[in-house]
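Human
Can I borrow your eye for a moment on a structure tokenisation matter? Give me a protein, with the fold worked out from its sequence. Write it directly below this note and I will take it from there.

Assistant
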Amino acid sequence: ALELIDFKNALEQFHNLVEKMIQKTKERSGLYTKDDDEIDYVKFYRTIRALFGPAVKDQNVQAFFRKVMSKPDERPEWPEIFGCFTGGSVGMSSPSKESMVLLVSEKQQITHSVVKRKDVIKGIVKVPLLHFTVTASQKGVLTVFSKKRKSFFSYSFYFHQAPTWINGCDFLPNLKYVVAVTESTVILWDYKSKETQSDGFVIKPMKNCMLCVCTVTMADDLAKDTILMGDDRGYVYLLTITSDDFIMKQSKAGKESQFKALDSESFDIPKRKLHDDWVGKIRYFSALKCFGSCSTDSINSFILDDIKRLEDHLPVKEFSVPKGVNAFTYCGKAKVIVTGG
């Protein structure tokens, strides 16, 4: 508690110092002359050292000082003084030192390019049990990064048949498929197939625009996978897929490349309107046995309840936040849910 109080006091003094620097920089003119309150680099450096000690590095202090002096209107965030937004981890102090205020773990950069120019990553999902990460790009590149022998291998597949952008992805742990949603389809990609012979299934058409997707993990779901989806009209969908569906529900229309079409009308997909605006994010928390969904809707901003509520239409636990909620997460250790609007 004492360390926390000391840090808050140091941070307050740091903010006051930066505000004074910004004010003095803006006051500068042809008639301005230096006075005793002028803050040069030496004074700034000594003050920072006195406040935070060895937790800051010289190069970060220099970079912060230059940024404040050259662009006083762009106020840098305080974590920058600790190098949180700078790349690399060379010369990192030992995490065991008590003087460390913020601990930054060593990172590994993936230099393999999986998306082309003017494309962006729309979803990143970590699969701890299989030691890999799944990504989906807006223009249809699905990639699995598998960590083997301390290096990354990528298996990319470009979904040429996607008529619209991919909006999100997740992994089906039982069926071993990557699931992704576009504005009008649900993609099930068999990542185990060779890159030149990628195959899977496409569930279409979806009447509304699908914006997000997540997997529901339950102990008794050994032969099937359940996913949750949110659309642009505030609906949340519950879709259960089994391996039998891949055989029984193939469309007679034939193939689209290696991907087989599945008629969405042949699936029982319960849905319920929970928000009055777009569903921005959806997630299932196994520890709580509940799903969460959020929206920019100011009335029904965040929903947290059992997935059975999508079928029985009983009242749901909902929370209102002005201007809605854009993101949320659950911390099991602290037993709290944090939302960001």
